[in-house]
Amino acid sequence: MFLPKSGLFGLFVVLIISSLIIIYQIQVLKLQDRLNSLELNHIEDTAALKRQEALDDHFIIIYNRVPKTASTSFVGVAYDLCKKNHFHVLHVNVTANSHVLSLNNQLSLAKNMSQWDSIKPALYHGHFAYFDFSKFGFQKPLYINLIRKPLDRFISYYYFVRYGDNYRPYLVRKKHGDTMTFDECVAKKLPECDPNNLWLQVPFFCGHAANCRKPGNKWALAEAKKNIVTNYLLVGVTEELQDFISILEITVPRMFRGALDHYLNSNKSHLRKTVQKQTPSEQTIKKIKDSPVWQMENELYEFALEHFHFIKKHTLHEKNQRVVYEKIRPKFT
Q1: What is the mean pLDDT of the chain?
Q2: Run of H or E residues at 61
């Protein structure tokens, strides 16, 4: 049976229309699958983001700040950011500015900081030596700190207690009125400028063992080095404070988002400078550097500097580094 040409044409049109309808339906189904997949991924991504935010919201950072290392400048940035980035900053004030915490206060602080959930995420700062939360059964916080060339820090403190700084210029310091220079103090071999008083940064990183407080103790130096590498998230150097802030912003954006821009575009980069500080003579420098305590303090500084540069290289200079999971077996169904 043969169909007339008009019939063949009609059948051809019907087949084309039917094929287009089928193709359209297939495309609709594919599109729906994609939308379902995107929606599922969005749900999963949102859930993952919320889980991450929940973890970030429990951050505890302890900045056991070494005196005269630009700590006020850094803390000033944190105080300015805390409202915007929704975290708390708390100063830990120890009686008589003691750097050593009693055992019961170590336990109380570890317990309180760990369990005070309503204040988290939080940055605690104060002039006290490192102490280990896990010793008391609590999860370790993220420790950070800054370290400075030991002689520069020593001289800065010497003149600070006499003349103060530009942060609070009207505050009378404990050595106010004493105009003796650091050179004169060293020449007279006075206790205040005894090289043993350089022994400060090693104890801060060493911790609360008795040997940490013994000037020139080799075990204390080794313990301080170990803690810098294993128990501190980051230890920067005063001379490279900008890079210290940059690394924290990249690593802990929950708290330090916008920190570098704020540091560069506010007065925080030059917040505190010791007034009337004099450069010591070469003879004075040689006397200080001949002391075993300076040599050990400087060894710690050089160690921390090298470690910081290693971290900086792999954080600031290799920003395009990516880490992905591959060859996951068995496959997800």
Answers
A1: 87
A2: strand 60-63
